[in-house]
Hints:
Blueprint: H1 3-13, H2 15-31, E1 35-42, H3 48-56, E2 58-66, E3 78-81, E4 93-99, H4 108-117, E5 119-130, H5 136-142, H6 152-157, E6 160-167, E7 170-174, H7 177-186, H8 198-211, E8 213-214, E9 217-222, E10 224-231
Parallel strand pairs: 1-2, 1-4, 2-3, 4-5
Antiparallel strand pairs: 5-10, 6-10, 7-9, 8-9
Helix pairs in contact: 1-7, 2-3
Amino acid sequence: MDFEKAKNSYKKNAVIQKKMAANLLKILLKFYPNNFDTVFEIGSGTGFLTEEVKNNIRYKKIILNDITDNYTGIVPDEFIKGDILSVVISNNIDLIVSNACLQWINNYDELFNKLYSNMNENGVFAFSTFGKDNFIQIKDITGIGLSYPDLSNVVSKQGFKTIYFEEELDTLYFQKPIDVLEHIKYTGVRIQNRVWTRRDFKLFEEKYLEKFKDKMGFELTYHPMYYILQKTSR
Length: 234
């Protein structure tokens, strides 16, 4: 991932991520009132979810976290820069939110345990992430893709109750295979840590044309997943 370089192109290209942020807040407010004292956001990025929280949640304090600088355009009560697994976070948090970010976490047990320890009793953890069929076309052609673990065991083991879960498939269409790669690049995702040759691009285009083109164009699948969790006694 290369979000620092993609910060200027992200908002224009991350149409699915923007939709996910709106959906997550809509789902959250079906189950809880829009009033939380302290809100903590993991992976605030360019602010899709931050804006939704600001516009729909009444809070006394908002804390943002990201591995890059604060690009949300919103001045929080506190901004914590760094990997969520390594930074020190406040306790007494009522609501933790995250949008299209947790798929990059490499230790879910550690993360959930850390969040649990810093949440108030009955605190809420609302997040969206991606499932195993995300960018399935890219993984099919290149063999490269993230590993998407089953979070259900982690959730229960770390002391959370699942209030709501939903998943869906959302497909974008592009005119050319190169447009697919550019779209992914502009959302800060790097497929391979190497320079592609002209032959690499040609083979990629040939396989995409053969497998993943229909009358609407060249397809790219997203697999959004939505979780609303509540802290319970261990």
